[in-house]
Structure formats: structure tokens, C-alpha cells
Amino acid sequence: MHEVIWKSVYRQRAEQWWRLMRSRMRFQQGGKYFVWNYWDPAGPWDYKSDPRWKGSPGVLWTAIVPHDETLRKLFEANHKPESWGGLAITPWYCAELSKLR
Predict the structure, then answer these.
(1) 38-65: per-residue pLDDT in tens?
(2) Where are the beta strands (DSSP E) in the chain?
(3) pTM for the complete prediction?
(4) Where are the domains of the chain?
(5) What is the Cα–Cα distance from 3 to 91, expressed in whole angstroms?
(6) Radius of gyration (Cα) for the chain, nearest Å?
């Protein structure tokens, strides 16, 4: 963005993001290669848990949702078909449910 509209705020943000991402890289094989540790949180948003999933059994694997009544209820109560993830998973989920019924 900085190179397109020449606002310094975009350059500053890019530099801050680069410093943060670089701090997650580790030297491997005698300092020859960098490997980004993508499990490190990127910001405060990665520490917040979603209250909609309180009481869930943990990671909700969509592949097993159609086969477990409890997971299905939890999934349907919190699923947003209009979201980016929902656009991909909703048709599959509906097809799986139709196979079971």
C-alpha cells in the first residue's frame, strides 16, 4: 500500500508486522535456514477464546460432526453459513446430513 498511495502509516505497519513475524523465525541446521514458527500467537486476538464454543469437547472436527448428536447440535448452534468458512463447509455439511437421513 505504501508504494501505491505513499502514506507512511502503511510502511510503518508493514515494518512492525515484519519484525513480529521475523521474531518467530528460528535458525536451523547451523544457522543456514529460517523456519517460521506459525504456532506462535500473532496478536492479542489469538489469546481470546470464542465464548460460543464454551463447553465444547475441544477441537471441533467438522468431519465427525454429522455422526455425533452432541457435536451436531453445538455446530448448528454456532455455524455461520454466510462466513468464509461457512461458504465452504455448508454445502458439504448439508450433503452429509442428507446421506444420514
Answers:
(1) 666 767 766 676 676 666 655 556 777 7
(2) 25-28, 33-36
(3) 0.40
(4) 2-36, 49-100
(5) 40
(6) 20
